[in-house]
Every structure is written in C-alpha cells, then in structure tokens.
Amino acid sequence: MSNGQLSNVEDGAWDKVRHNFARIKRDLGPTSIPTFGDIALTGLTTDSLIYAASGGVLTSLGAASNGQLPIGSTGATPVLAALTGTANQVTVTNGAGSITLSTPQDIHTGASNFTVAGETITDLTASRLMASDGSKVLSSVSDLTSWIAGTTPVSVADDGDGTVTLDINANGINDTHIDWGSGAGQVNAADVPIALGIGSPTVDQVQEYFDNTGSSGYFTGGVLSDGGSGTLDVSAGEGFIRTTNDDNAPLVSFKFAGTTGLAIADNTTQYVFVNDSGTINLSTDEFIEAADNIMLGVVTDEGGVISHTFNLGVRLEESIGQMGRYIRHVDDVVRNRRKGGLIFGQSGDANRYVTITAGQLEWGRTSYPIPAFDTSGADTFDTYSAGGVEATGVSAWPNTQYDNAGTLTVMTNNRWAVLWWYIEPDGHIVLLYGRAQYVTEGQAEDEEQPASSIPNRLSSASVIASKFIFKKSENIAEKVETAFGTPFTGSGVTAHNNLAALAWTSAGHTGTVSTLAGFDGAGAASEYTESNYLLVDGSRALAGAWNMGSQILTNVNIDTGDINTAVTNTEWDAAFTHVSNDGSDHSFIDQSVLIVASPTFVGMTLSGDLSLGFGDLVSEQNPDTVNAIRLKGTASDVDVVLGASGYFGIWNAADTVQNDNIFSVNSLGNTVIAGDLTVNGSIIGHVIGTDVLAEQTIGIADNNLLEVDDADAADNDFAKFTAAGLEGRSFAETLSDLSGQASAAFDWNGQDLTNGGVLFLTEQAEAEAVIAGKGQFWINTATPNEAYFTDDADTDIRLGNHFVDRGDPSVHDYRETDLTQDGTFYDLDLSSIVPAGAVAVLLRLIVQDGIVDAELELRKNGNTNAINVGRITTIVANIPAVLDAVVACDSNRVVEYKTKNTPFDIIAITVKGWWTYGT
Predict the structure, then answer these.
(1) Is 51 exposed, middle or buried (0-12, 13-18, 19+ CB in 10 A)?
(2) Beta strands at 429-433 and 381-385: parallel, antiparallel or unpaired
(3) How confident is the model at residue 739 (pLDDT cuts 50, 70, 90)?
C-alpha cells in the first residue's frame, strides 16, 4: 500500500490489515471528516449516481440523462426522472448538467413588468388589502389602522372595504406641521382664507384683513428718557407699521433700534416719531404722524435741560381693552342719546305712579337695554336718604317728607321739596330724597344734585335721570324734569308767592276783589276793606281827624281850609294859631317865631321892620330925609344904608348927616373914605390922578409893588415872578415851567401825591440816612437795577418776590424711603435747604409705580382744603412721571405731602429753587 491507498487483503493476512490501518494518516471515526484524493470503488456504473441499497450497499442508480434527478419514493428505491413544468406557470428547460426553471414573465424585483390577470389567491378576504407577516406569508389585512397609524393632528378609520378615512383632529395642526414664512412655498397670512359673504369680495385673506382693519403703532420699547445735556434716549422696540402713508397699504411687523444722545434744540418741544425704515425722527409739528411714521412721544427742553418726556404714541397691546377701560374711566354710566327714551312721567292722580319710557344705558363698551317702567303694574322702586335705604318695593312717589341731614322729616305745610331719580344698568330705579324744604317753588328748582352721602350703589353704577318738584301733600308734581338733553335749571318767577324773602305765608298774589293785602301781627297775609284807606289820587276824603303822632309832615301844599290849634309840628311851637287864605292877597302867620329851611319868597311885603336879633332891617328915611333901607345896629354900632338916591354908605354911630358917612359910594361910583386907607401897614397919601406906581419901587423885593407884565394875561392863569413883574402863565405853560429839574429836596409836608404818571427814580448805591417814622423807596445800582424799601430801622428790603435758583444739586433731596406712605398728610421740612424768608418752593417731582393713577399730593403746611393742592399722578404703569411743582411754604419752610392709592415704588423730590420777599 502506498500513497494512502489500501491494497487487496489476502486471506489470513488480517494482521497486515490491522498493521495497514495503523499506518492510515486520517481519522476515520464516526465523527471524523476525512478528506480523500481519489477513491476507486468497483461494481458501480460510470456516470451514475449511487445510493445505499439494502444493507447499506452502495449501488449505482444508473446514468442520468439531461435534467434527470433522483426522485425519492417512500419505502422504494429512488428513480431517475425529469421535472415537469405547468402551463403559464413554470417552464422546465433541461440541459447538460442543468435544469432551468422559468415563469412566463419576469417576476424578479428588477422586472419592469409583472402581470397577473384573473388569478385567485385562496385564503384571502375579499375587498381587503394583502400583506406579508413576519415569515413573509401573504394574508389579508383585517384592519388597515394596524398598517396606517394616525397622529395627533390626523386620525385614521378603517372603512371595512379596503379604504380608510383620514380626519384632522381639533387643534391637531400646529406650527410644527406647517412651514411658516414669507418665502416661496411657505405659508403666511396671505395663504389663510377668511369667511366670505355675498358679492365675491376681493378681501379674502387674513393678511388683507390685517391691512384693512389694523393700525400702525408699537407694543414694546420706544421709551423716552433724559439722555443728559439736553439730549434724548429712545429704547429699541417693535410694532406694526405700513410701508406707505396709505391706510390700506400692507401692515407689516417691524423692529426698530434704540438711539441715545439725540440732540433736542434748546427751549423747544419736539415730537418723536419712528418711520417704516426704523429711523427715529423729530418734529415740532405733532400732526405729521402718519401710517408710515408713528409717534412715540414728546420731549421738552428748557434752557438746554430736558424738563420732561412723555410716551404718547399708539400702543397696540391690549388696545381694545385699553379703549374700553378709557371709556369707562372717562365716562360714567350714560344714556344712549341716539336711542333716546328713559323719560320720567307721573300718573297725575292720587296713586302717584311713576312711568319711564324704554331706553338704553351705556357703560364702557357694554350696552344695557332698559325696558319701559310703570309702577301701576308690577314695577317698583327703592327709596334712599343720606342715612341709607328707607324703603324697597315702592310704587307711589312720596309727597310729605324731605331728607333732613340723613333723617326723613315731615315737611311744613305749603312748603316745596325735590325728589331725585336714578336708573341703574340692571334696570333698577332708585329715588333719593331732596336735602331741604323750601318756601317757594323757585327755591326748590334751584336745589343742586346731591354731591355727598349718596348710596354706594348709586355712586358706583347709576345715572341721574329725573327731578320731581312738588308741594307738600300734592298728588301731582309741579314739574317733572329730565337730566337728558336740558340740564336742571331754576325758572323765572311767574307768581307772587314764588318770591323769596317775603312773609307771604298763607296767600298768593290773588285775593278778594276791592280789598287790600296786608300782614297781621303774626306776619301772615290778610285782606282789608279798600274803603278804609286813602287813595293816592285824593278822590277819597278823610272821615275823621288824622293824628300824625310825632311824625313830620313834609312837602305839603295846603290850598284851602284851616289847620287848627289841635295840629302841632316839631318845627312850629304852640304859639302857632293858623294859616288862612280868604281869597284876598292877605295871608299871614300869626306867631312869634317862623323857622323855614331854605325859603323862597315870591312877592312878599313886610309892613314893619324885620328884627334880626343883633339889629333891625328897616325901611325909613336917612337923617338927610332920603328914603332908604337901613341895616341898623345897636347904638354903639354903625349903620349900613342903601339910599334911594344911589348911595351906599356906612354911617357913624351918631346917625347924623351924609357928610358924616364913614364910607360911601354914590350913583357915579365916587367913593368917600372918611379915614386913611392902609395897605400892608403903609398909607397911600397920594392924590387920585397922580401916577401912584411912579412913586413906588416896582420889582421882586421886600416891600416893593408888583406890576403885571403880560399882555395876554387872562382869567385862571397862574402867576409867575419875573424880573419885570408878574407874568400870567396858562396851564400848559405852567406844566412846562415845572418840568425843569429840582435842585434840592422837595418837601411834600405829608401830603398825598395823587393822579401821577410814571415815577422815574435815579439809581444809587445805598439808602439815605434813616429818619424815625419814615421809610425810603430807592433804586440800587445793580445790573439790571432793583427796587428797595428801607424802613426806619435801616433794614433794606428788596421789593417784589423773586426767584432764587438752588444751583446744581447732584442727588435728589428726598426719596421714597424718607417718606411715610399711608394716605395721610405729613410734614416735609425743607428748612435745611430753603432759607428763611422763602414763601414758595419749586420742586422737581419724579414718581413711578406698578399701577396707573397712583398720586402724590403736596400743599402748604396748615392748609386743609383739597383745592390749592399740587398733584402728580402715574399715567402709565412702571413708567416715571415727572412734574415741576410750585408749592407755598410756611415761615418755617415746611410743606405737607400725602401719597394716595398706593405706596410708590419710586419717589424723588428735589428742591430747584424758591421765592422770597425782601432780602
């Protein structure tokens, strides 16, 4: 044996066989896998397959032809046979050493066509889709939702016929499922439709809705603030704006950058805008605001310093809500004037029912329809006084009481009162009693609407609607007035009993015919018979004696009759007898004394002398037998005589002859003076006819005569001394003369200087020396100069109040932590900053809070009323409000402050200056 081959074994040589097996280099065990090069077995057929026959004998099956395969047969010897194909299904093609199986058409994964027509696959359900399971076995799909799953936006339902229904769930589609944007293929507002009505409207997109209904404005940023040194800072912001000044141009969202150090011209007010390109711009004209240039606010510069900034532009956030709140804050509950109605009426009978016509109330942005109201049916009202609710479910208006400081009080008979009527938005009607009773209707008409002690339900939500004016116990109101259209007004007086301050308490203007109105002892009106009284035309005579008592009878013209001795007068004593006129010229008063004030006598003739007490006025002849009127004194006095021959004379005491006259003037004007004529102690001894002036010294000097040296001298001229004598000066000339400058102090001797014009005073360095009991007005030499008053204690007081600038403080004087904020007034002592003598201070106030209408009040220390108060209020939450306020202070430089509605987040108070009287 060689090369691993076994040679024939001879009989009896099995030892050699064992020896040869031991030399085999390969394992031949049951678990071995030996590898042989060539094995030659005898008894087998060439080119045939072998099989293990019975007993495990290898046997040739026979030579197979093309395509034949050994085909097993249970319990039998395998046979060689070829595969057989099926029509239109599998085609068998046998070849040398090969068998090709094929189908009528390509069915591989890369086949371009695969057609199955009219084929039925069993074990499938009709009208169902087919799918393979995990083993790639095809089967019908009983529920397509196991293959087509739904999502949050989309739900899937199997229709049972091989189809599914897809539904979009509510709120299923969100921004994660849509490619939003303005680029091509992206979804934006222009792709979202809106509901359309009739007429094929062209506005059919959400974007177009915004364009046509939206507004330009901003919703963040844009805050104005002081940038220092007269500049403005504006914060960045966002909003909506149109690209052109067209109300229908596209409304686009935009974002603008902030800016700092924007210069504001000195002493100007500038309005701040931002345009569609995001540029911040200024203008002194607030009306350039446009759809593409929106306003942010306003800033004011005073002398290079920003005095205040305010944001005024259109704020878009919560704009509808803000407008509703604005309407509600500015307007209370009001009547819808266009719809009208809400007019009060009365039944006009003893039932005293109240009626109201239907109407509508408006409160903010909410409408409240008010139905017609009639208390003759089921409708009722409530009544209130200042003390609170008085009654509910009332149907008849009250006519006997008024509100007396919160207590209902029964009215006095014949008095007038008022009822006030209110309507609430829920349709409730409330009556509020009037606050007083009145003597006249006119006074009741003048009662004003109650301003205090009004029920909370009325002050918070109601509108005053009507006013009833009635007389006590009357079932019909005299007037039913409405608050709508025409305000409550008092009427003019049309009846006598409507006049105020007259004691007509029980009767009016009318009365019984042919009687007179009067007052009895209690002041009540009464009537008296007309025939008991005199008539002014004198047609009714006195029926008896008229006793004037102690009263004076004046301006009496007595034409006939006698005044007998029973009549007395304080101007006439008991010696008076009578005054009579018997138709002749003789009338006389027979009494010892007649006293008449400022008498006028016409054609009175005295038959005797008139005694004047110190002498007599007589008509008699002089000693020269000439008739004369003489005023004769006592024996030691001289007589004054008016002679019938034209003489006027003063006679000597002896009353002798004409030549004894002391002084006389004849009818030619010749004058006789019995003695010397003394002038200023000198005697003029010259004979008349001589040049008296030539004998005297003429000129302006002691004991000289003055000569008038003015050809046009006239009456009412003023006299002016000149070297030539006296010169007449007219008023205008005198004023011209007085316009010269005084060369010395002018002493007015304590007299007033009245009706003067402008008084010009020359400035000087200081006041003159003081004089006790006197003061000085003078002007100092400052530039410009100043007016001063110096008292007799040598105190110089600058006249007029003047402002003192504080200077340039670096920090605020008072902050919120320095103040007590509980809604009560507290003192704020400024004396460490403001000097004595100040009467008012200029304060810079800055406040900020998280709510609107937080308020800080300041007033003079000691004031109690709410009128003379300075206030600063937050306009926008969390935005500073700034105010310069002038507040009067007391002599200790103390003012009062109070916070209202909230403790402020920020309060800053700075004293900028003060006003003083004097220095």
Answers:
(1) middle
(2) parallel
(3) low
Who has greater pLDDT, 163 or 753? 163
Q: Which amino acid is present at 887?
A: V
Q: Name the residue among 395, 437, 383 with its Cα closest to residue 412.
A: 437
Q: 641-684 pLDDT, tens per residue?
A: 666 555 566 665 555 544 556 667 766 667 777 777 666 655 55
Determine if residue 732 is left, alpha or beta; phi over 0 gives left, psi from -120 to 50 gives alpha, anything else beta.
Answer: alpha
Q: φ, ψ for residue 397 (rounded to 5)?
A: -70, 140
Over its C-alpha atoms, the chain yields an Rg (Å, rounded) of: 66
CA nearest neighbour of 420 among 451, 361, 465, 357: 465
- Distances in whole angstroms, Cα of residue 12 to Cα of each of 9, 18, 22, 866: 9, 12, 18, 151
pLDDT band at 582 (very low <50, low <70, confident <90, very high): very low
The three-state secondary structure class of 457 is helix
Question: Which residues fall within 8 angstroms of residue 152, CB to CB, at 6 or more apart?
Answer: 169, 172
**Judging by beta carbons within 10 Å of its beta carbon (0-12, 13-18, 19+), is residue 895 exposed, middle or buried?**
buried
Please state which of the ranges 214-223, 620-629, 724-733 shows the lowest mean pLDDT. 620-629
Does the reported pTM lie above 0.70? no
- Which residue ranges form the domains of the chain, and what is each CATH number? 1-34 (no CATH), 214-317 (no CATH), 329-492 (no CATH), 610-675 (no CATH), 692-737 (no CATH), 760-799 (no CATH), 802-917 (2.60.120)
Hey, CA dihedral for 532, 538, 541, 544, is it positive or negative? positive
Q: Contact, 796 vs 779, CB < 8 A? A: no
Dump the DSSP string for 3-23.
TTPPPPPPTT-HHHHHHHHHH
Q: Residue 555 carries which side chain, given as an amino acid letter?
A: N
Q: Which H or E run contains 881? A: strand 881-888
Kindly provide the residue ranges of all beta strands, DSSP E only, lying in 53-97, ordered along the sequence. Answer: 58-63, 68-73, 76-82, 91-95
